Batch of 3 targets.
Target 1
Amino acid sequence: MKRPKQKFLFISMILLLLVGLMSGCNTNKANQGSDTEAKDGKINLRIAWWGSQDRHDKTQAAIKLFEEKNPDIKVTAEFTGWDGYWEKLATAAAGKNLPDVIQMDYARMVEYVDRDLLLDLAPYVDSGVINLDDVGDSYINGGYYNDKLVSVNIGTNSPAIAYDPAMFEEAGVDPSALDPGYTWEDYIDISKKLKEGLGDNKYGIGGVYTGLLYFNYYLRQHGKQLYNEDGTGLGYDDDQLAIDYYTYWNNLLEDGIAAPPKITTTIKGLEDELIVQEKAPTIWFHSNQVVALQESAGRDLKLALFPTLPGGEEGLYLKPGQFFSVSTQAKQPEAAAKWIDFVTNDLEANEILAAERGVPISSKVRDHLKPLLGHAAQAMFEYIELVEKHSSDLYPPEPVGAGEITALIDRITEELNYGRITPEEAAKKFRAEATTILAKNK
């Protein structure tokens, strides 16, 4: 008579174990932020971004303020570094579980729109949930694609040269040599004098700048673009432009003016940059990086425009450093729109964020914030104002495959810098492989 009872107890224990396991799975799911309502009945808003630890800390502090001002909303923060961010989003998209708010990059925007993953935010602007009254067109235009506002700029920047005035003076070179109007040839002369004045184990330039960002600037000065209008091919026909550009940097490398690859390949972050280590007085980068760069260097740095092309066009532009977008899989789109309005317009929030992502797009926020910031951030604000006077329209959003093109140019640059190929071979190789990649968009 005992055997049936034991069997019953055994089955009961198995059932209880299964229930426990299922409850554990549900708990894990809630911890991942997939529930649309928090346990206390509040709206659960998921916000994803990439960045440094400094960005994480600032954003989470702003989130705390957002929750205080919106007591019905609880935010689940989902952040990581750049590495792995897009893979994580791709996995979430495949599972139809994208966060409500996504930090978006200009190079990825078209891909996400083509996959119908970004919501049109125009209705929220029209209804007043997102207020863009104090935002100029040049600050917001980059977020439009196919006449839809799919992304809102959360920090404007532009390509820039950072330079160390103290190293210029040490080398006997007047920093005013980088005032607007100097040419590509002038830059060679300036860099040679810097190298000569600084002596051994130091360089006139922190490296060679043959990446897509810088090559596209050169093309724009010649009235061309990197990609054609529909993203199915390159936007320039004459490979002499690429040959000339590669040759320019290759000569600086061979002459020992630019730091060689055996030096630059050891750079893993801003704290390793040669300008930080006082081994080179200039670096080409994005203007919003100057705050972190100066913190790493521990001394004042200045920003300058890129070289001009005599008789050429303006190659610079105002570019969204990052966007915030709302995913079409969002479970709380209106709360997501409120967050975007908050980071765009709230003065307290922007005091916390401290323009780390770039210059705020609201003129009221810029006016409020500028006097409160340190020297580096103020220099960034002033630089963006300068670029507005020396820029042209932003290039179209990068096509699908832009990530592959970036990897391609990085690979070709490495071959060129190590002397494995010539500038002519580099230009030919880039066209052949880039054309194959972009032809997939036809």
Target 2
Amino acid sequence: MATDSARNFATVALRQILGAVASQEATSRAEIARRTSLARSTVGQQVDDLLRRGIFEETEAGSSVRGRPPKVLAISPHAGTIAVADVDVNATKIALADLTRRIVARSVVPVPVEDGPAAVLGAVTSRIRELLGAHGRDGAPVRELVVGLPGPVDFQHGCAVRPPIMPGWDAYPVGAYLREQFDAPVVVDNDVNLMALGEAARDDVDAPLLALKIGAGIGAGIITADGSVHRGADGAAGDIGHLRASGDSEVLCRCGKTGCVEAIASHGAVLRDLGFTGEGGTARLTEAVAHGDPEALYRIRQAATEIGEVVATLVHMYNPRTLVLGGPMSEQRDELLSGVRAVVYQRALPLATRRLTITTTEPGSDPGLAGGVALAARDVFSPEGIARLLAE
């Protein structure tokens, strides 16, 4: 009985200490003792255990007022690996990160989503393994793999549900397939949720946050004031692309209905109407806008107006502090922002907009990958994740 009690106490102490260092609330043994109220001898024993396990590393600080420099504790970059796959229509972006959220490798798998889950996930699996080997991560086990899919996702079961732009993916067990490949927990989420998490992780962004991805379709990700993703009862929250557009349109959408905002205002719809289909369509649109092409400017402004109508409703419902517009359409930053802002400030009440920031994703950034890393790191250092980490 006494042995079991001592073992339980040691496990609880390990979790407290690991959580304090992972959250950066404490970076030394003395700070850990103050934060956790554990005896210094207990802290010393458990820290030494975590150092032996390779979960912690202890280094000397750069300077000291007198005597030896203090020692600083941190999560070891070799304690494990996070893998993220952000699946999009034409390709999948991949990133590897250590448990401190530092991205150590990036790559792109140029397999279109319409080739089906076996082709895409097979290529993703191979590339992740290549990256693990090339960057010396073979000895750092994959602690969690996060996948973003461009369609409705059943978060609990790890699969897409009747995704309009993903033939063959309906109910395919994405999570189960990758768990078997990497013997690690797998989280499957909507790609816009990951984008929203990535934007919310920026230092200059305030929550609650609403993120819109305007690409082949249109989706929204909602981050609450406490930094959590609002997925709804079944994971369908934010699937706004199939709301009815404000205009009297009978344009046929891929979902089989007519007049959906996605069919009228998505990046894909703009390219289609301008005849910029096929490879290089986005570059052609950017060039046309840069040269002041009246048809291109008119079509983007028309799309921005429709998107603004939807956003105005969402602003009333969720009252976000930040609205971020992303996806390939955000490359037309000036035209898109001016159009959306004009409608939102006209339609929404002053109380909902007086402190609202409307912006676009940073050029060249990958908020979907950053969001996947943030989600995985949070899971790894949750009570359940820490229990898994210490069970090895």
Target 3
Amino acid sequence: MSSPYRELLTVPGARPFVLAGSVGRMSMSMVGIGVVLLVSAVTGSYGIAGAVAATLSLTYAVGSPLSARYADRHGQRRVLVPVVLANTVSFAALIMCAEFGLPLWTLFAAAAMAGLTQLSLGAWVRARWSYALRDSPARLHTAFSFESVVDEAVFVSGPIIVTVLCTGVHPAAGLVAATALTLVGCLALAAQRGTEPPPVPPVPGTRGGVLSTPAVRVMTPVFLLLGMVFGAIDVSAVAFADEEGHKALAGVLLGCYALGSGAAALWYGARHWHAPLDRRFLVGLGVLAAAMVPPTLVGNLWLMMAVVFFSGLAISPTIIPGYGLVERLVPPRQLTEGLALMSTSVSIGVAAGSSTAGRIIDAHGSQAAFLVPLAAALVAAALGVAGARVMSSGGRPRPQQT
């Protein structure tokens, strides 16, 4: 590990909350696949399984920013403990409804409760970094880069673990493991009181959530479109490997993409940047759009592995300054909520991108489906340019020059 990251982990209390957050975050790449594998095994229908998983995703998009808002107002520990316990009970109910063959509506009800109580734990950990590094903000981009590496590791390893457990042990085993990891990680994070950001009660007279910040209204759809890029790439890559006669190498192909993003995150976080965050974010969006062009032109699996690696290099240098902008622009009393909103926007985008690419694959094949992430990246870049002034000023009037 390069020196900036080694120094980062010497921050008092950093190692325990990083470890707890990493364990608790494993489930974010496991629950969706785990629900599909469990429900499809007991009902015999991938359509029902997909609908149940979609219910969980939609309610997660509603519940995650709300729990983050309460954490900002009342403290992480006071919210983490009851919410994660409710989440554990909800997933246990979902598993039992599936195993005992209860009516289908019970699956949807349990999935809805599980989604409402699912936490965007990466946002909570990033909020802790902001508090821990409040006296050295220059190091915050290194911390956010490190968290992006953790995210990539989770998304590479999580699907493999849950698939092995569901297919090799028991259809419910993957979901049980994901639920246990969430419970252990969240309780361990709640126990770290020294690095917990102090609660900031709402200012009297203020109304609305974090979306009342103009810059957040610009960045939310941009992050959703970035999620569409990720989701569409995943589905298109799997279909491409299948069409090339090497479906078993689909995971390797996706791993090359994640490896590129992880390598870029390590490089990005180790550098000291002078360019402002908003400019770096806009450059990242432009580079990402350009990086989505080569996959639309390649027709060979082995060449595609190299191409998606280089495409992945554009991901982290876009996401990291994006989170940094949110950290800088939202009021401190809404920091966790703002970061959680970006994470849930990405999750919604992933679902939309996967669905859109899947339909195009069915109709026209994987090569055409690679146009979906390209289009999403181009629109994200256009929205970023259109909202550049708002992001650079946070939506506040600039002081008059004299």
